[in-house]
Design goal:
Helix content: 40-55%
Number of strands: 6
Strand order of the largest sheet: 1-6-5-2-4-3
Radius of gyration: 25 Å
Distance between the termini: 63 Å
Number of helices: 6
Order of helices and strands: HHHEHEHEEEHE
Strand content: 5-15%
């Protein structure tokens, strides 16, 4: 701000001396360097932000990258087995909960599946954030956000809000009721519902 004020004063000054012209040239070059440096810093901050928001590309397949870049409020993924989507929804949910403080709810067809997501989240927290998380049905994060885990019984998911992730949705009993309940959980207009599933005999 002081450089800009000095440049403005010299620019408006009538009958500039040689020293004024030299100072104006020097101030202008210094300001250009500062702005260039600010630009580089802004670029570096943006790169760091994106790095924190997405896993390293070295282990991302193209379909996983597309999934993470999809900001739709409703995402539906019909997947094959052992393609890494359970890990991806665990990673995305934890990262967003840490960065933005948004609560998450994971709903699966069995307690075994919810425990797998729970383990993934704890592993990611430990390996990426050096954070030891605790909890089976609910994980409470240091910033106050909560990650909830539900299996099968849609009635148990009452009374919570936030983004909703369905894992193996096609294998849920009374899937329609689960989906309607998810709409109640994600009541705010910017909350998201993500549905992933392998095919089942009912789908």
């Amino acid at each position: 701000a002081r450089l800009e004020a000095a440049i403005a004063a010299l620019t408006d000054k009538p009958n500039k001396s040689d020293k004024d012209w030299r100072d104006l040239d020097r101030y202008s070059r210094n300001l250009a360097q500062l702005r260039k440096g600010d630009g580089r810093r802004a670029e570096r901050v943006e790169r760091e932000r994106k790095s924190n928001e997405q896993p390293k590309d070295s282990w991302l397949f193209a379909y996983q990258r597309r999934f993470l870049e999809d900001k739709s409020l409703l995402r539906i993924v019909k997947k094959a087995r052992q393609v890494g989507f359970t890990l991806m929804i665990a990673w995305e949910g934890l990262t967003d909960a840490l960065n933005r403080g948004r609560d998450k709810s994971y709903i699966s067809a069995s307690f075994r599946q919810t425990r797998q997501i729970n383990r993934y989240i704890k592993q990611i927290a430990r390996n990426r954030y050096d954070m030891k998380l605790r909890g089976s049905e609910v994980i409470k994060l240091p910033n106050g956000a909560e990650i909830n885990f539900f299996a099968s019984n849609e009635a148990t998911a009452q009374g919570v809000s936030g983004d909703v992730y369905f894992d193996e949705f096609s294998w849920l009993r009374r899937a329609r009721e689960h989906y309607e309940n998810a709409g109640a959980i994600a009541t705010q207009k910017d909350y998201r519902i993500t549905i992933t599933s392998t095919p089942s005999v009912h789908s």
